[in-house]
Amino acid sequence: MRVVHESDGQSQPLAENVETADSFLSQARGLMFRRSIPDDYALAFRFDDVASRDVHMVFVPFPLDVVWTQSGEVQQVEQLSAWTGLAKARADTLFELPAGSASDVKIGDSVRLAE
User: Fold this and answer.
1) Of 6, 43, 85, 114, which is most buried, counting CB atoms within 10 Å of its CB?
2) How many domains does the chain have?
């Protein structure tokens, strides 16, 4: 599984090493207590409906790019600082990536999971 970014007819992978956080526990834990993540990594949170989804950086010692999507369309992109970052947006899927990975992703683009 990988995370793919599509914009202006172009497609490029954002991450080739993808984990999903589908259970309540894995969603609550997120990337807390990890020392680092690989450059081609993403943690994908898939939800059954669109709702306000927040991300905090408590116990996450490295910065992240976070992308919120609704039906694959990007709604929000934020780079969160280690330990203190906090952001919220409406989404049915969100992606946590190494800082800088989503620097070219813009609201309205497509970001999705692909086999």
Assistant:
1) 43
2) 1
